[in-house]
Amino acid sequence: MKKLSATLLGFFMVCFAMAQTARVQIIHNSPTPTVDIYAGTSKLLDNFAFRTATPYIDVPANMQIPIGVALANSTSSADAIATFPVTFQANRTYVVVAAGVVGGTQPFNLFAYDMGAETSNAPGNVGIAFFHGSPDAPEVDITTGGNVLYDNVSFGEFSGYLNVPAASYQLDVTPGNNNSTIVASYNADFSFWKGRTAVVFASGFLGGDQPGFEPWVALDNGGTFPLKSVTTGGGGGTGGGGGSTARVQIIHNSPTPTVDLWVNGSKFLDDFAFRTATPYVDVPAGVNLNLGVALGNSMMASDALVSYDLNLMAGKKYVVVANGIVGGNPGFDLEIFDMGQEMADAPGNVGLLFFHGSPDAPEVDIKTGNSVLFDNVSFGEFSGYLNVPAASYELDVTPGNNNSTIVASYDADFSFWKGRTAVVFASGFLGGGNPGFEPWVALDNGGTFPLRPATNLNGGGGSANRSAVNTSSSKATVYPNPTADILNISIENTDEADVLLSVVNVNGQTVHVRDMGIQSAGNQTMQLELKGLQNGTYFLRIQAGKEIQTTRFQVIR
């Protein structure tokens, strides 16, 4: 999972107070087992799966950080199988890709690009960078309609951002020296990602080894999904073949190793990782489908640990969630929802389906404000689609019979997903088991990402205090809240300090910074103009010397 540990979060917070920071997104593109990532002796990423990514996060700059890579379920940084010393420059944005093969001809390495971007150059555009991460693929070009987008890119190389209208494109892969020979073609829909950025990364093996070659996309918020092949439609080897078909999305929510899925003796999904999903794909309807679940790198259908017989109705859409614990309690099972949707009920809405997949969590309600969105949902249950305006919401998790007790709160930004649908699924263990509890989102195109705790800018832990998270002895209040154009900040400094104000949106992007200079000890009041900010929820980070506070506010006009 893509989660900062509490220990490392504390380390980073101290570093933030002492030094400048950089922004980093990490993508796991090495076809090896799930790994843990360490920064020094602290675990940065726990159970980081192949073809998943983090959102952009703040990291200390201008200091060397040893990044260690260990196999999943490691107990300390001493378990690292490889360590890379890195130094990030202050105020720069990086994309770091783990690629190559441990012990292979193209050895495992971290490839860093120091000109990352979180927003495109115009509101209607999308910024797309390309990374060649297929170990056995030659130098390639990426073209569309005969126009070369990325030219002569070799393994381990990045090709810089291309800002284009946020729309759908056919991307053709050709040899670097022969654009008339198209190796493969893929549909790339970026119409939903206006004003944002993404990295398209070549992944897997071209020459027939497993996992097979696929181009994947990492969105700037950490969501990842494969591009659909123009020739096969993507998603595996059980296409409709011209007969009656159903549409299915599969979500892996069982906290077990990466698995393979076999259908009627053929491999349907290879190396399907925990907390990833397929897009909706066509599958045969009206016939028996024997679905087998095997451990990753399985060789044949008989390697399946469990199997299920499915018979799907033509024309229907299904959401299938692999859930529970293999050999545990509750046991592993497939939960099936037979009223899936790929489109919202209106162009400006988003259709949200909730699935309770946390094995040790009780019956819950999901609410926003005083409104209950999903009522009395128990483990293994779906709550039907709710169509709401595509916007940002604070989602509160409460016991099913007590909406006044908020267990945790999360910021959920669906403003980019107009007219589309998504599944919000509770994942992990609530009672302290590993992996820990997190709500995740599976978009209808197969992209997945975790929801962020509402009161913590840097992604670790929640708080019952919805207005501020204090990491110092200073006290700060903001008003009016909600506000329109001006935010007043009242701060009580214990000592004279240089004060820096940063406004961050719900996606972790810094959208405004103002240096207030040296402020005297005692009570101080400052004003921050908010011109240009759209309606929504924001975080104000107040850095006073070595002390940091984070306060949430809303802009409503």
The average pLDDT score comes to 83
The helix content, as a percent range, equals: under 10%
Distance, first to last CA = 37 Å
**DSSP E strands, number:** 44
Share of residues in strands: over 45%
The radius of gyration over CA amounts to 23 Å
Strand order of the largest sheet: 12-9-15-16-17
Tally of helical runs: 1
Poorly predicted spans: 1-18, 232-242, 455-474
Cα shape = globular
| SSE class | mainly beta
Task: Give the count of structural domains.
Answer: 3
Main beta sheet strand tally, sense and closure: 5 strands, mixed
Describe it.
Helices cover 2% and strands 50% of the residues. The chain has 557 residues and is mostly beta strands. It has 3 domains: 6-229, no CATH class; 245-453, no CATH class; 468-555, Immunoglobulin-like. The strands form 10 sheets. A 5-stranded mixed sheet has the order 12-9-15-16-17, with no helix packed on it. A hairpin with an 8-residue loop joins β31 (392-399) and β32 (408-413). It is globular and about 70 Å long. The model is unreliable at 1-18, 232-242 and 455-474 (pLDDT under 50).
